[in-house]
Design brief:
- The structure holds 2 protein chains of 2 kinds.
- Chain A is an alpha+beta fold.
- In chain A, 68% of the residues lie in helices and 9% in strands.
- In chain A, helix 11 links the parallel strand 1 (312-318) and strand 2 (350-358).
- Chain A is elongated, with a radius of gyration of 33 Å.
- By secondary structure, chain B is of the alpha/beta class.
- Chain B contains 10 helices and 6 strands; from the N terminus they run E-H-E-H-E-H-E-H-E-H-E-H-H-H-H-H.
- The chains are: A alpha+beta, B alpha/beta.
Chain lengths: 421, 211
């Protein structure tokens, strides 16, 4: 890390320490509120309502702590179990959900020790920093306030101006030490918070099960819809055309002796119909599993895709091997969807796709220089990508400020097969 | 005229063999897998070969790869590539060596027998012939090449599909003289230096495919 980077990290950690002290002051009243909520919960009607408010406040405070940890580069996942589907706030089932979730209790237990640790460590960092700043500013302060200082650092008391000036280098060293130590102290603070605020092993597994249930349902729905679409396309397209081909040839057969000219015309018609049936089948196949994907893998298929677009699209790929077939297909259609969105909405003049794989994660970026303002909450296209990738534990992030540029980043954990030959 | 066929489906391989033999081609080899294709092409040096993109054992693009590899060893070895689907990407790869004598068609075009045989002859003679669908896909995506009029663009499209000047004239209901005037304009606008006509046609098609 560069010196500048170190200083920036240090300053940020000191600021975080200041925040941590402030937030620690919130903890005792929050704890008091929650204990009150717990005590009052047997009171009919009002009790559960009050507990609901108190729990919300506790969770808000814990989430704030998790957010700070995420900012410090060590994200703490939320541990709470999902609410039961039709439990009204304050109902018996709702109460049971709150009370039986271990995370509720762990939050409450954390509040006091968390505050002590945060305040203690925060004060340490802030004090050292402040003392360093004092050394740097000693002489000007001396001149400004008059002779009220007893001493600084090694010189105690400060005998004369020269020794006063020597406070400057000492202050700088102390300030430097404070900035160097602050991130370490912050990581201790985060680690302590993690002990209480991260999901336990079993809570982690329960959350994972909940996530898998949702993504599996999505995947099954998507597959069923896909099969239904294929069935309909075949039924209305190629199948119907082949019926027509058979009928036309049958007619031609009957006519061939009596009216060869008419039979010839029918045969030409049949051939034309068989050609359209093939066109239908080709479109269908492209939608199921594009042949170029089977032949060339993701990289070649995305390149072929880029050639079809009205917008100039550069494809860069650093994949040392091929992906598993189901994953390859999911990523291909996700990229296709992202590119289709781009050419429909963004008015971009240039676009790019990059594929890379590192540390067991495939990263795909689709970017353009268009209008920006893409919102995954609004468009069904981006939402569809998210669902497609969800089945593979993949995630999607969209950065699209108004005025552009838009970058869609998809990440999927996966292994690559052995390098191509 | 000696021809090598590579197609894994027996029905189609026999059909192609029968068809070409009916039009006085001599089928010197009919191959059903990828690894055997390159040696066969290098060994027989056929006047033209008809190759399926997808061949066993991998069922990927082995036919295409073998065709390109053979043309790298024997520049301009005429190859007509057939496939169940067409990709502009593959068309561009076939044209990168700029040697001519390449074609790329959907398999179903074989059903128009006379047109198909004409295309085989054209490729054997060093021409280029791309499926109308490749051409249509290229046209669908971008604006016309810089400075070409609609008419010139249309002519270029027919060149890409492998039509002779006479055939283009017949399609567009204009005289051959007008066609060659259009073609000269196209060459000039694309900045193609004067050289032999076939070579410039190949270059123009390549620029067309590159968009």
């Amino acid at each position: 890390m560069t010196l500048r980077g170190r200083v920036r990290t240090g300053v940020r950690a000191v600021v975080d320490a200041l925040f941590a002290i402030g937030l620690a002051l919130l903890n005792p009243p929050v704890l008091a509120l929650w204990l009150a909520g717990l005590l009052l919960s047997p009171v009919p009607v009002l009790g559960p309502e009050f507990l609901a408010v108190a729990t919300t406040v506790v969770r808000w405070r814990a989430d704030l702590e998790r957010h700070i940890s995420t900012r410090a580069g060590a994200p703490i996942p939320r541990p709470y179990l999902p609410a039961p589907p039709d439990a009204e706030v304050g109902s018996g089932r709702w109460l049971r959900w709150i009370i039986t979730d271990p995370a509720t209790w762990r939050d409450a237990v954390w509040l006091l020790p968390g505050a002590l640790v945060a305040a203690g460590l925060g004060l340490l960092v802030v004090t050292i920093t402040a003392y360093g700043l004092l050394g740097v500013a000693l002489v000007p302060l001396w001149l400004f306030l008059g002779d009220v200082w007893f001493g600084y650092g090694l010189f105690w008391p400060t005998a004369n101006r020269a020794e006063g000036w020597l406070a400057l280098p000492q202050g700088l060293v102390i300030l430097g030490a404070a900035l160097a130590v602050a991130p370490l102290v912050r990581s201790v603070h985060v680690r302590f918070a993690r002990l209480f605020l991260a999901p336990t092993r079993s809570a982690g597994l329960r959350l994972r099960v909940a996530h898998l249930t949702v993504t599996r349902a999505d995947a099954i729905d998507a597959q069923a819809a896909e099969l239904r679409r294929i069935e309909r396309d075949l039924h209305d397209g190629a199948q119907a055309r082949m019926v027509a081909v058979g009928m036309t040839i049958g007619l031609a057969e009957r006519l061939v002796r009596r009216d060869p000219a008419a039979a010839l015309k029918l045969l030409a018609e049949a051939r034309a119909a068989s050609t359209s049936a093939l066109v239908d089948l080709r479109h269908l196949v492209r939608g199921i599993h594009p042949p170029v994907l089977a032949e060339r893998g993701l990289e070649g298929a995305v390149q072929a895709l880029a050639m079809h677009l009205p917008v100039r699209t550069a494809v860069t790929s650093r994949l040392p091997g091929r992906l598993d077939t189901p994953l390859e297909s999911a990523v291909y259609f996700a990229v296709a969807e992202a590119l289709a969105n781009m050419s429909r909405h963004s008015h971009a003049r240039a676009a790019w796709v990059s594929l890379s794989h590192a540390d067991g994660v495939l990263t795909v970026e689709v970017g353009d220089d268009g209008d920006g303002g893409a919102d995954p909450g609004r468009g069904t296209g981006l939402r569809g990508i998210e669902r497609r990738l969800g089945a593979f534990d993949g995630t999607m992030a969209v950065s699209s400020p108004p005025g552009g540029p838009t970058v869609v980043t998809m990440e999927l954990p996966c292994a690559l097969s052995s390098p191509r030959t | 005229m000696r021809v090598v066929i590579a197609e894994d489906l027996t029905l189609l391989r026999d059909g192609l063999t029968r068809l070409l033999e009916a039009f006085d081609f001599e089928v010197v080899d009919a191959i059903d897998n990828g690894p055997a294709l390159l040696p066969a092409l290098l060994h027989h040096r056929p006047d033209v070969s008809v190759v399926d993109v997808r061949l066993p054992p991998t069922q990927t693009d082995e036919g295409l790869k073998a065709a390109i590899a053979a043309r790298a060893r024997i520049p301009g070895l005429p190859v007509l590539v057939l496939s169940q689907h067409v990709e502009p990407l593959y068309a561009r790869e076939l044209l990168t060596d700029q040697a001519g004598g390449v074609g790329y068609l959907l398999k179903e075009r074989v059903s128009d027998v006379e047109q198909f045989v004409a295309t085989v002859h054209q490729v054997a003679a060093g021409g280029t012939a791309f499926d109308p669908e490749v051409v249509a896909q290229m046209l669908a995506r971008r604006e016309p090449l810089a400075g070409l009029t609609t008419r010139e663009h249309e002519v270029l499209r027919h060149i890409a599909e492998g039509r002779s000047n006479a055939a283009i004239a017949a399609r567009l209901f204009i005289t051959e003289k007008v066609v060659s005037k259009h073609i000269n304009n196209i060459f000039a606008k694309l900045g193609l230096p004067p050289s032999d006509d076939d070579n410039r046609r190949v270059m123009a098609v390549r620029m067309f495919l590159d968009g």
